[in-house]
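Page 47, continued from p. 46.
Same chain as before, 325 aa.
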Amino acid sequence: MFIGILCALCAGLVWGLVFITPLLLPQYPGIMLSFGRYVAFGLIALLPAMLDRKRITSLSKEDWKVALKLSLVGNLLYYATLATAIQLADAPLPTMLIGTLPVVISIFANWRPGHASESVAWMRLAPSLVILAIGLMLVNSSEIDHLRNTPNNTRTISDYVLGCLLALCAVAGWTWYPIVNSRYLRAHPRIHSITWATAQGLTTLPLALLGMLGYGVYAHFSHLDYAFPLGPRPLEFTALMLVIGLFASWIGTLLWNKASQLLPTALVAQLIVFETLAALLYAFVLRGSMPDLRVLAGIVFLCAGVVFGVRTFSRRSPSPISHTT
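Result:
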């Protein structure tokens, strides 16, 4: 259990890096950060693909179509919306919204029209949803005050609102992704989980390269002030993309899979909170200030809401919650 918790903690620590990268590279559009991250991840995936080429070549045309669709939504669109949201609204509130994913995923995975027996009554869900809402409102009020009271702040209230909406889009994308991903794997047990992860890395690479090229063409004809392809800080951009491509997209997932093997499912789902806590820690260190009491209270409410929600679903079903970021 100690090793499992340590693996989950380390996974959360490396996943937290993706939330501060947009703040470290504010001159880069969120979509370019997404393309850069997944070009790096796709290149890294080439090595396990060569080692696993027998199972990779056994995947069907339909498998590759599904992997492509999952890569587009769960990788590129998810991180593009999240990175842009963080640049517009700063890190704390988008991070808190992403922290609700364990409960949100469980709700949408188990609430199926026509299958009422598989869903959980709303009265049983109400406590966790109310607790999560209180936590989000506390952090939201703190961040709006910070926005208004910070001198020389270039963010506006409209930027903040747009950032929150984009963060909700990221939540929607990463609610859809693990549900579709896990159901496809259950329906096709012949596909090994490592092979499937590698396949998604391989399909992400051409998408990210094409997307990066397309943005370069758009930037040229729109006369955008962007030094394509590596931007105004090429060394920092390349280094950070390689770091999050390797640690967040690959090593973090391997650590999480190890934790999932060693720990009970209900406990693993709750430990996803490590990611949120790490991201908030990094964000406030980068900001150079301590979170106020409202943010601290919001974090407590978030953790409590996730624990309540996961326990509600774990009593109903033993099925695991898969997670990467």
